[in-house]
Design a protein that fits this description.
The complex is a heterodimer of chains A (226) and B (223). With 226 residues, chain A is α/β, with parallel strands linked by helices. Chain A is 51% helix and 12% strand. A five-stranded parallel β-sheet of chain B has the order 2-3-1-4-5, sandwiched between helices. The chains are: A alpha/beta (226), B alpha/beta (223).
Chain lengths: 226, 223
């Protein structure tokens, strides 16, 4: 598990709690790179068609243990990684990932999976060249989610952990613990921390300037319809 | 290191694994062992690979489509394995059953190793599997295995012939080459994990007698 500068492509990931605005930010980054004429590919956590059936079934029937929950997400990731992400990087594309293995390290770590086991599980994957961590004070993140979406799903709220009988309370505790894991990983994986309390526009300006600074964007501009 | 929430010291029961390639006669022997054990007053639970309600059907579909990378297949099988371990094997052991497993992590590891998986990655992936009380690996010569496979299915299976590896365009040749490689990996795993090889070139009754004698001594050591 290393950053691979020998690959012609570049990998950018966004991480953060639900409600941190990371999906909005990566969408705006995607639009900007497309506008510049760059070769860019977008991939989303838990979106492999083949694995989706099993994950959905497991969640619906509440069959999942921390281990199988983690393994199904790793299966989904491996499918996308080997079929799309790695070939794209080899072909010289900028790959944007809405959540990456750090989501598993945080969520599955909270569920009790051992940190070393999780890191070895994802050991086949490269570390992103840039990982943006959209950081919000916990009450703000909770406020955004709980205001907009009152009906929390079972696993989303960490109900499988038995943290609290009440769904909302369970969600609060679960998100708090996930945040502790993200904060601890910020150094371990050299996250670029973005203050997600700032306006969407301010955050996006920062994101774009970091990308322009760290990547030689001219290398990724399509020429002659390539 | 067991899965989160499982304390192996608090589990009773006995976990016995029968390993070996397809068509070697595992299911016949497991059926006969179950009869014998139940007759002797032991409660038996049978488990196997690809039987988990979680991913069993998806695995079947993936194999038919042949569209997943080896690593994705590894992880799918590992999900299936841990689902069975945590939802079937552990509860049965807690209840004091003799669990007869029709294959365990060793088949999964051997298949992946033949396909070029990193041994350290696989070790870590399966590091949470419970250590069985006994593992018996049924082995036969490749020619006998091919005859039995042909007799059972009137043809060779794509995966059991390792056709995905491109060893040969000829199915029989591929089967022989693939099964030899599997056996090499099993031998390496045996050296590391110390399971017992059982010669399955013999008649069913003789093999069964052999297995019962070995299992008898495992059960005799139980409190």
């Amino acid at each position: 598990m290393t950053v691979r500068d020998d690959l012609p492509g570049r990998l950018i990931a966004v991480e953060g709690l639900d409600g941190s605005g990371k999906s909005t930010q990566i969408h705006l980054l995607h639009q900007w790179l497309l506008g510049l004429g760059c070769r860019v590919f977008f991939s989303e956590w838990n979106s492999s068609v083949l694995v989706k059936g099993a994950t959905r079934k497991g969640k619906k029937r509440q069959l999942l243990t921390p281990t199988t929950f983690s393994l199904l997400h790793a299966t989904d990731f491996a499918d996308r990684y080997e079929r799309q992400i790695l070939p794209m990087l080899k072909a010289g594309t900028i790959v944007l990932c809405d959540r990456y293995m750090f989501t598993s390290f945080a969520r599955d770590g909270v569920r009790g999976c051992e940190a070393g086991w999780l890191r070895r599980l994802y050991g086949f994957a490269v570390v992103p060249h840039i990982t943006f961590y959209f950081r919000l004070p916990l009450p703000v993140a909770l406020g955004r989610i709980l205001a907009g979406r009152p009906s929390l799903k079972y696993f989303e709220a960490g109900m499988d952990l038995g943290l609290a009988a009440d769904v909302t309370e369970s969600f609060r505790i679960f998100q708090g613990r996930i945040m502790e894991h993200y904060d601890a990983m910020a150094d371990e994986f050299a996250f670029t921390v973005v203050d997600a309390t700032r306006t969407i526009h301010q955050q996006q300006e920062l994101v774009r300037s970091v990308v322009a600074d760290r990547l030689d964007l001219a290398r990724f501009v399509r020429r002659g319809g390539q | 290191m067991p899965p989160p929430g499982v304390d192996p010291a608090a589990l009773g029961g006995v976990l016995i694994v029968i390993e070996g390639p397809d068509s070697v006669g595992r299911s016949t022997h497991i059926r006969l062992l179950t009869e014998w054990l139940e007759h002797a007053g032991w409660a038996v639970a049978e488990v196997g690979l690809k039987r988990s309600p979680l991913v069993g059907p998806e695995l079947d579909r993936a194999q038919q489509g042949n569209t997943l990378s080896p690593r994705t297949m590894s992880l799918f099988y590992a999900s299936d394995f841990y689902d069975q371990l945590e939802n079937r094997i552990v509860p049965a052991l807690r209840a004091g059953y003799v669990v007869l497993a029709d294959r365990y992590i060793f088949t999964l590891m051997a298949r992946d190793l033949v396909r070029g998986a990193d041994p350290a990655w696989l070790d870590s992936l399966y590091s949470m599997a419970l250590v069985p009380d006994a593992v018996y690996c049924l082995t036969v010569s490749t020619r006998v295995l091919a005859r039995r496979a042909l007799a059972a299915h009137a043809g060779l299976d794509y995966w059991e012939s390792g056709m995905d590896l491109g060893l040969s365009r000829d199915w029989y040749t591929s089967f022989v080459l693939y099964q030899r490689r599997l056996r090499q990996e099993f031998r390496r795993l045996q050296a590391r994990y110390g399971f017992e090889m059982v010669n399955a070139n013999r008649g069913i009754a003789t093999i069964q007698h052999d297995l019962r004698a070995r299992i008898q001594s495992v059960l005799a050591a139980q409190p």
